[in-house]
Write a structure and sequence with these properties.
Elements: E1 2-17, E2 21-37, H1 38-45, H2 50-61, E3 68-73, E4 82-85, E5 91-94, E6 99-104, H3 105-118, E7 124-129
Antiparallel strand pairs: 1-2, 1-7, 3-6, 4-5
Helix pairs in contact: 1-2
């Protein structure tokens, strides 16, 4: 059996209305994680803090080594960055900083999760599973 893990990001805000009326408001957004086997879920949820649970989840996700994804990256401030066309009319990204890397599925997931969590800096997190 397996479980669906979800991180719930929450932050307290204040809504301001006409007439200087202010109301407290909680913003909550779910961040869906991968489905985990029951034993993995129990291990992750057995940790006391968000940081420990997140580290355990990432360790488990990194075990997913195949298939691999090709990833093309570049530096946004590269003055040589531009587009070119090959003989078949396909666009090619060119520039001194353009590079190819190979990521496993787990590495790609952890990278994307880190990028998502960076948008929720200073938010509180709660874990749930079903």
């Amino acid at each position: 059996m397996s479980h669906n893990l979800t991180l719930h990001a929450t932050v307290e805000a204040v809504l301001s209305f006409k007439g200087d009326v202010k109301k407290p408001y909680t913003i909550a957004e779910p961040i869906r994680l991968w489905q985990t086997p029951t034993k993995v879920t129990e291990t992750i949820m057995g940790f006391a803090t968000h940081e420990e649970r997140l580290a355990a989840y990432k360790r488990w996700a990194l075990l997913h080594e195949t298939p691999q994804h090709q990833r093309i990256t570049w530096d946004d401030n590269d003055p040589t960055l531009g587009l070119d066309f090959d003989g078949d009319g396909n666009q090619i990204i060119v520039g001194k900083s353009v590079r190819q890397s190979i990521e496993t599925v787990g590495e790609a997931h952890v990278r994307e999760l880190d990028e998502t969590l960076a948008r929720y800096e200073d938010w509180d997190f709660e874990w749930s599973w079903e």
